[in-house]
C-alpha cells in the first residue's frame, strides 16, 4: 500500500500545472520533444543568412568567370598599353607612359584602319538592317511554312565564319568567280575584288550582310509581333493601306529595337576580324597589299602577334574599347530621348 501511494503521488499533476499540461511539465519547461534553449535563435539566424547569401551564391559563378577572363585581362591590357612589351620577352617591360597612344594616333596605318572600319561598318550595317526590316515585315503576315522560312533566315548566322568566307572568296575570285562571270554577262569588266579599294570593302561587307541579316530579321519579327493589333485596326479604319500602316505604325513602334540593332551592329563592325582576315588569304592580316580593307581588329592582330609589339597592340585594343564606350553613351542618350518623346 505504501509503495502504491508513493507512485500515485509521483504521477499526479501538481497544483501549479495548468489544465491540459502533460505530466512532468511542472518539473521543467523544456521537456521531451521541446528544443533546447538557443536552437530556435540559431535556426532563425541560419535562415536569415541563407536568404541573404543565396542570391549572391547563385550569381557568383558569372562574376568569377567574368573577373578571371574579362576584367583581369582588360586591366592587364591597360597596364601593357603603358609599357614597351615585346611578345618574345614578356618579362622585360619598360614604362613608356602614353607614348604608345601618341605613336598610335600619329600613325597613318591607325587612321587608315579606323576609316576602313567605319566604311565597312556603314556599308554592311545600313543595307543589312533595311533588308532585315523588309524580311521581318513579310514574315509577320500569315505565310505558308512560316516556321521553315524563319529557320532558313537563321541558317547563315549558324554557319561558321570560315565556311562563309571561303564560299564568298570563291564567288569573288578574279579568275572564274561567279560575280565576275555575271558582270561579264551583262557587259561589265571584271573587278579585282581583293586588290581594289571599294571592291574589297564591298566584298567583305557582303559577307557580313549575308551572315547577320536573318538574325536581325528575327529580332525585328519578334518586336513586330509585340505591337498591339488595335493600332493596325485603327489605321485600317482610317483608310491606311499596308504601306501607310508600315510607315506610321510599324516603324515608330520599332524605334527602340532599331536603335538596339544599330548599336549591336556598330559594335560588331568595330570588332570585325574574321571575315577580312580569311578573305585576304596570305595578305589577310595586312588587310590587302595596300591595307585597303585592314580594320582595327586586323591592325591589332598584326601589331601584337605578327610584329610582336604587345604594348602598341594593347593601346589599339583600348582605343577600340573607348570607341565602344562612346557608342554606348550615344545609345544611352538616344534611348532617353526616345522615352521622353513617347
Entry keywords:
single chain, mainly alpha, two-stranded antiparallel ribbon, 14 helices
Compile the SSE list and pairings.
Layout: H1 2-11, H2 39-80, E1 83-86, E2 89-95, H3 99-105, H4 108-140, H5 146-158, H6 161-171, H7 178-185, H8 197-225, H9 229-237, H10 242-253, H11 255-270, H12 274-280, H13 296-307, H14 310-341
Antiparallel strand pairs: 1-2
Residue share in helices? over 70%
Shape call: flat
* Main sheet summary: 2 strands, antiparallel
Beta strand count:
2
In words, what does this structure look like?
With 342 residues, the protein is mainly alpha-helical. Helices cover 70% and strands 3% of the residues. The protein is built from 14 helices and 2 strands; from the N terminus they run ααββαααααααααααα. A two-stranded antiparallel sheet has the order 1-2. A hairpin with a 2-residue loop joins strand 1 and strand 2. The longest helix has 42 residues, at 39-80. Mean pLDDT is 84; it is low at 1-31.
